[in-house]
Amino acid sequence: MKKMRLLLILAICYTTSFSQEILVADTTWAESSPVIDYAREVINKLCDKSMNGRGIAKSGDKTAADYILTEMRSIGVMPIGDDYFQKVPVNANIFPGKMSLIFNKDKTSLKAGEDFWVDPTSAPALGEFKLTYITRKQLNDPLVRMDKLRDAKEGFLLIDNLDKSGESADLTKKIDLIINKIKTETEIQLKGVIIYDNFKLTWNSSNSQAPRTIIYVVKELEADKLKTAKIEIEAEYKTSYITQNVVGIIEGSSISDSAIVLTAHYDHLGTLGNDVSFPGANSNAAGVAMLLSLAKHFEMIHPKYSIIFIALGGEVQGLEGSKAYTNYPAIALSKTKFLINFDVIGTGIDGAKVVNGSILEPQFKLLNDINTRNKYLSKLEPRGEACISGHCMFHRKNVPCFSIYAMGGTVNYNNLDDTPENTPLTEFEDMYNLIIKFIERIK
C-alpha cells in the first residue's frame, strides 16, 4: 500500500538565487526604534488580508499602490508631473475564485494551500474526471507511457513522481523533460495532470496559461487507489491588464538635474482561490518599507541630488514595472547618478549580497568601506550581473545600479509563512544607515 507525502516551498523561479542563500532560521530580531517601528507598520499593512497578496486577482495590486501613494504624499514625496501612478500593462494567469479537489467521490477532500497547490500556469477545470495512475519509472517506458496517455484521454494523468532511486543525472533530466512536455504540449489530449513529488517546487505569478490544468498534491494519500477526482479550479487569463508603478520625487538642494533613484517592487503572488493569499513580508514588503523609510529621512534633510522613489508593479509577471519605467522614464535615464534596488531584505544575519558589485568596483568599494568603518552589516559580498529583480532593466540601459538582498535568516520566502511575524528585520536599520551614508557620498 503506497503512501506519499511532499513538501512544497514556494519561491519565484527567476529569483531562486535569493532562496539558495537564505539557509537557516534567524532568531535575532531587531529591537524597537522609530525606523524599525515604521518599517513594521508598513510591512504589516502590505501583508494584511485586505491586500489580497498584492496580486492582480481581487485588485490587490491597486489596493497596495493606493496605500503606498498615501504614504508618499504624507511623507512629502511629490509626484513627477500630475500623477504618482505610471501605467504598466501585464499579462497574468490568476486564480480569483473557487478551488477544490475531492478524490473518490467525496471520500478524500483536500484543502487548497495546505493539501494541494495548482501550478501558476494552470488552466481552469470543472467537473469529475477519471484518473490514470502512472509511476515515474513507467514514464520512461515509451510503450507504457503511450498506453497510459491514451487511457487518460480527456481525463487526468496522476503521476507518482516520488521514487527517483537508481536514476542517473541524465535519466532524471530525461524524465523531468517528459513530465514538462505532458504538462505543456498542446497535442497531448489530456484535461490535466496531478503530480505527487518531494522536491521543492516553485510558485509564481505567471504571464501565460498552460493548455491544461496542473495540480500538485501535498496530502498523504494512497495514490494508486485514487480513481476519480472532482475538481473545481477557477483560473482566468488576463491580457493587457493595467497595473501601475508608484513614482515620486524629493527635490535636491543642488542645481544639478541629476538624480538618485531608489526602487523596490511592491507586488506579490496574490491569491490561490478564495481562501489563500500570500503575505509577502520578506518578498517584498520589507523592500517597500526601506523605500518609504528612506523617503522619510531624505524629506527632512534635503539631499544634494533629487531622489526618485519607485515602487515597482508587475515584477512577478516578468519585471514589467521596470520595463515600463525604463521605456518611459519620468526623468531621462542619462540623468541618473545611481540606482539602488531593494529586494528580500527582511533578514541579513549573514550580511547582504550586492548585485553588480563586482562590475561597479569603485561604487562597491565606497559602499563596503562605509560598511566596514561603521560596522553595519557582518559583510557585503559583491556579485556580478544577475537579472533577478527590478534593477535589471535599468542595468540593460546602462544606468549604474546595485540590487541589494539579505543573506541568511528565515527560510520563509514566497510561501504562506512569509509573514510579518516571521520577518525579523535583523539588519534593516543598519542597511538603512548604510544606504543613507552611501547616497551622501555619491559624487
What are its keywords?
443 residues, alpha/beta, Aminopeptidase, Glucose Oxidase, domain 1, 2 domains, eight-stranded mixed sheet, 11 helices, 16 strands, 23% strand
Question: What can you tell me about this protein's structure?
Answer:
With 443 residues, this protein is of the alpha/beta class. It folds into 2 domains: 13-91 and 238-441, Aminopeptidase (3-Layer(aba) Sandwich); 99-233, Glucose Oxidase, domain 1, CATH 3.50.30.30. It is 29% helix and 23% strand. It contains 11 helices and 16 strands. The protein has helices spanning 16-20, 34-46, 60-75, 136-139, 142-151, 169-184, 281-301, 320-327, 361-374, 391-396, 428-441, and strands spanning 85-94, 99-103, 108-110, 116-118, 125-135, 156-160, 192-196, 213-217, 228-233, 236-250, 259-265, 306-312, 336-342, 352-355, 380-383, 401-406. Strands 1-10-12-11-13-16-14-15 form an 8-stranded mixed β-sheet, with helices on both faces. The chain has an 8-stranded mixed β-sheet with strand order 3-2-9-5-6-7-8-4. Strand 14 (352-355), helix 9 (361-374) and strand 15 form a beta-alpha-beta unit. Helix 2 (34-46) crosses helix 7, helix 3 (60-75) packs parallel to helix 7 and helix 9 packs across helix 11 (428-441). The model is unreliable at 1-17 and 19-26 (pLDDT under 50).
